[in-house]
């Protein structure tokens, strides 16, 4: 089968971390995704919780080695000229499963690159008849476009992304629990009463600032001014409620650098009787409600955990989940959305 020309690009992507309804943690990962014919290649592989080898939290030398492999300037890590395209977000072991493909120069002697024979691989050698992605590829990328995209990664001074969050609030115990949860999923977090007097170099290490509900407007403005004077652009999060999984979800949304037009989960809305969620590709969606009862205790209900087809979906809300102050969190493997339920 001859490979047809496809466009090649790169874009920031994220594996959404979080505190799940059952109490488990999901690790946050920033990575660079492959954009093939204008769409993330990851989304073309149905529902897959994985990251590319171009992850932001690996040592620079290893990051560079992965880029040079994709440029065919280093040997393939697997047999038969196969390269890892996506792997487990928790580890690098092949036994967890990985999407692999043969990467080679075009046989006609041009400078084009060809990705072919995609497969799900858990051991060597790859079994294409059993685990091949027969509807994916082969892709032929023009050499100049392909090299230019990957060379930009090599030219970057610092491939690692900022993953620190500054927490501002009055409830120190709550902030300590939130900071612990964020650190557990791989996001750095610091607690402060304000940002006044903090050196600009330190402020530049943050990508988001989260405010507690009781933080006065004067303090919020002071923090914003400090970051503005330092020339640092960060996302600001107004905490919805003192519920750790909900606050983590809000912060995850703020940390998402992926282009909005290339996200999988694009809409979440909630009415008194149902929630509506929209996805752009087939993926697993989890829908969870959190509410505070009259004693300010958190009540959690998992509404949905299914693989959904692209489009709009309506999920009924049981009456008990909408009493009082309640919120909905929708998540896929790549991003997360939150919204408040109407009283």
How would you sum up this structure in a few lines?
The chain is an alpha+beta fold and 343 residues long. The protein is built from 7 helices and 21 strands.
What can you see in these coordinates?
Helices cover 20% and strands 35% of the residues. It has 3 domains: 4-155; 162-250, 3-Layer(aba) Sandwich (Rossmann fold), CATH 3.40.50.2300; 263-343, Immunoglobulin-like, CATH 2.60.40. It has a 5-stranded mixed β-sheet with strand order 1-10-9-8-7. It has a 4-stranded parallel β-sheet with strand order 12-11-13-14, covered by helices on one side. Strand 8 and strand 9 form a beta hairpin. The relative contact order is 0.14. The chain is built from 7 helices and 21 strands. The protein is an alpha+beta fold. The N and C termini lie far apart (58 Å). The protein has helices at 60-70, 128-131, 143-155, 172-184, 200-203, 217-229, 244-255, and strands at 4-5, 8-15, 18-19, 25-26, 29-36, 39-40, 82-86, 98-105, 113-121, 139-141, 164-168, 188-192, 206-211, 235-238, 265-270, 274-279, 283-292, 298-308, 311-316, 325-331, 336-340.
């Amino acid at each position: 089968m001859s490979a047809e020309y496809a466009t090649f690009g790169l874009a920031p992507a994220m594996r959404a971390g979080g505190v799940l309804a059952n109490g488990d943690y999901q690790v946050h990962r920033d990575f660079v995704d492959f954009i093939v014919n204008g769409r993330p290649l990851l989304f073309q592989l149905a529902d897959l919780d994985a990251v590319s080898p171009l992850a932001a939290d690996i040592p620079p030398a290893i990051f560079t080695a992965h880029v040079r492999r994709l440029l065919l300037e280093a040997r393939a890590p697997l047999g038969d000229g196969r390269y890892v395209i996506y792997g487990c977000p928790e580890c690098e072991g092949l036994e967890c499963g990985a999407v692999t493909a043969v990467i080679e120069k075009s046989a006609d002697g041009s400078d084009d690159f060809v990705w072919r024979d995609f497969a799900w691989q858990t051991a060597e050698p790859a079994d294409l008849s059993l685990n091949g992605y027969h509807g994916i590829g082969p892709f032929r990328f023009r050499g100049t476009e392909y090299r230019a995209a990957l060379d930009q990664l090599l030219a970057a001074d610092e491939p690692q992304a900022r993953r620190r969050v500054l927490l501002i609030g009055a409830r120190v115990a709550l902030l300590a629990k939130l900071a612990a949860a964020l650190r557990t999923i791989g996001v750095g977090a610091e607690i402060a009463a304000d940002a006044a007097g903090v050196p600009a170099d330190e402020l530049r290490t943050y990508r988001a600032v989260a405010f507690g509900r009781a933080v006065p407007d004067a303090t919020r403005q002071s923090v914003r001014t400090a970051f503005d004077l330092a020339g640092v652009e960060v996302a600001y999060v107004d905490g919805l409620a003192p519920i750790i999984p909900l606050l983590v979800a809000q912060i995850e949304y703020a940390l998402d650098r992926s282009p909005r037009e290339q996200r999988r989960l694009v809409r979440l809305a909630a009415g008194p009787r149902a929630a509506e969620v929209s996805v752009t590709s087939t993926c697993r969606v989890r829908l969870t409600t959190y509410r505070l009862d009259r004693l300010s205790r958190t009540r959690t209900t998992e509404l949905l955990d299914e693989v959904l087809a692209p489009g709009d979906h309506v999920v009924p809300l049981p009456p008990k989940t909408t009493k009082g102050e309640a919120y909905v969190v929708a998540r896929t493997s790549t991003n997360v959305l939150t919204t408040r339920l109407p009283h």
